[in-house]
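Margin note from the TA: students keep mixing up input and output lines. Inputs are the sequences; the output is the structure of the whole complex. Example:
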Amino acid sequence: MSTYAAPLKDMRFLMSEIAGLKEILNLPAFAEIDADTVDSILDEAAKFATEQIDPINVIGDRQNSPKWDNGVVTVSPEYKSVYKQFCENGWHAMPGDPKYGGQGLPNLVNFAVNEMWRSASIAFALCPMLTMGAVHSIEHHASDEIKQKYLPKMVDGTWGGTMNLTEPQAGSDLTAIRTKAVPDPSGDGTYRITGTKIFITWGEHDMAENIIHLVLARLPDSDPGLKGISLFVVPKFLVNDDGSLGERNDLICSAIEHKLGIKGSVTSVMSYGDKVGAKGWLVGKAGGGVAYMFTMMNHARIHVGLEGISVAERAYQHALTYARERIQGAIIGDEESKKTPKPILFHPDVRRLLMDMKARVEALRAIGYFAAGNMDLAKFSNDPAVQKKAQAYVELLTPVVKGWSTDSAVEITSEGIQVHGGTGFIEETGAAQYMRDSRITSIYEGTTAIQANDYIGRKTAREVNKETGEVGFTARALYKDIAAFADDLAKDAKLGDIGRSLQEGARALIDATEWAIKTYGPEPQVASAGSVPYLKLGGIVIGGWLMAKSAKIAQQKIDAGEADGYYKGKIATTRYYAKHWLVQADAVAREIMEGGPSVLGLDEPLF
Amino acid sequence: MKILVPVKRVVDANVKVRPRADETGVDLANLKMAMNPFDEIAVEEAVRLKEKGVATEIVVVSCGSPASQETLRTALSVGADRAILVDCGDTELQPLAVAKLLKAVCAAEQPQLVIAGKQAIDDDANQVGQMLAALQGWSQATFASRVEIAGNSAKVTREVDGGLEILEVPLPAVVTADLRLNEPRYAKLPDVMKAKKKPLDTRTPADLGVDITPRLKTLKVSEPPRRQGGGKVADVADLVNKLKNEAKVI
């Protein structure tokens, strides 16, 4: 077994050199926070993740998963006690608004700390993640009365929060939602909710005193489409005016799911209103529900992308530990290893697997942190031009972070098993859990196909500059910048080969983008068939760009006499990425531009 | 009652260290550093004494490079009130020099109790607490697994080879913390953020009138010899023969 160690060096490097931490800390919003404090926070979080959360990951998965009994869900004592300490030590409240007990830190810092929680245990970290998602929705759209009543205790974790969207017939398509809300006959302004919701993460458990459900439902005579859906606050226990808990609401967890992964978390079937209708309070305006959910969708999607990055990092560390310990066979071309056996880390193909995992994780982390830093600039910069550009980057990169990080995570965690050989297939080794846990990430909060459709469509081919009429201007401008950076780096004496690989990648992405803009309108099915490869291409090249930028900075540090092996490692890792991933860009571009018709080329009966 | 807790910045306990290629010392460049684990226990004990109302103020002090400020901040974030950095630059610090620096700090601060870690996990010297007590002419109780303060004395349970020894020492005294004294807490996030605002003063050995020039010279730091592979013996006679004539142990 391995122990999680937060990759603090890479985190700090990316935060300061790629994601603009210094610029962010200089903003008036963060006047109280300095770089030393950020350092201390990262150190303390790393300690908590390693010593407290990492050890319970296996407990939730294989030793004592949550149990359902007649509507009551019980988690392991270890989960309960770590959750309690997590809240007491202020980690739950960290990303919250200071008005409600949060710390008002940059999103970038929250992001790095969240990576640690998720590397240690996705299943555990989902609980605070969902609660904070619900907090954001209430904060942005609910009345002051609702905010005052629920937010302080949700922010500090005393109460949990959930998001209830999905129903058996309403998955990716929310228009099919049937859950009903009718005004309470007493005329007190509340509503009675009836219906069944499924896939409700941490919908019922015994870690928090109360659970505040956010439920999408239809009011009588509402529009049959998305505009007819409203959002309601439906607490498990009604909350009295003095904040104490009142009677149990008419809702129950009628079952929990048996899943491939994230088994330490609870996935509930929620039944609302089996008796008289669950009491609910309308959030914002009637019919605003889906829009309210979407305001936090970028945030939620980026966070699921981060889950992919986190679990891939954890799988890499697990595989690396094993590869350093396991001795098996002489190393090809190394006579010495016949006499003094060396661990399997020295076999060239194990090296390739580990390099692949490491390089991909670092590229994904770079995109994620870059996006997270831009979220801060978009929200807090005092320069409108910076704000606008940052927001455009966040919009463009969100589907890439979500879709590409999670698809990659499934592959990277699988490579982790491969490093272990046969023992990786055995659950006790621990490598399999990361692959199983990763699998949901490319499905929930919008599947990879939905991300790819968003990336190629709304974020590229349908993005129109209101002033100039140019289509896909954010993507085009970014890819032009990447090409210019590559041209420059190609001339570099030490890193020229990386620059040249990036040049090829940028060209492929630019070509495919022009094709997408041209094809999306007239041939939507062909464009859609190429959308997932297009997302992959974007991920490969944008990741390559940020890796190359990192390598350039690392080289500058080395040239300035900084001896940290991390910098040498960053350059070697980037070179691997250039030779193994950027070289794929050309082929993927052809797949996108030429492969669409063949996807659609087989008549349906011939399947 | 004021408690003084000396803390040392050492390489993180989970890091595997290697000697420098020239064998002049351990290569610490760019490694993860942390507070000496025994010092964490000492800080925790002081904080618990404050929470019980026994102590009124906790001063943490670290002698070392300016980077030791991080270690002091860690102590401030779990409940110490203020910190003193004795900035020794990159000079190698030996136990006697540290004990003299602490003696000078004690002279200025007048603590009634010093709680130190029993030893630092980097050099495992296990000397500073004892030397400080001797220089001060104070009582000492080392390897403490339980500390109770009653009036002007401390009852300290010590872990010794044969079991437990209970001592009563008059205050002021030096107590050094063993592993089982307590389990240190995790810092709370709001306290981590507040730690920055707590006072941290810097002194130099010159300010304190202490000469920290090393008195001992390190000749060589090297890896332990690699274990040689074992061999099979044919029978008991062969084994006895080998033990007698090759290993020369019987």
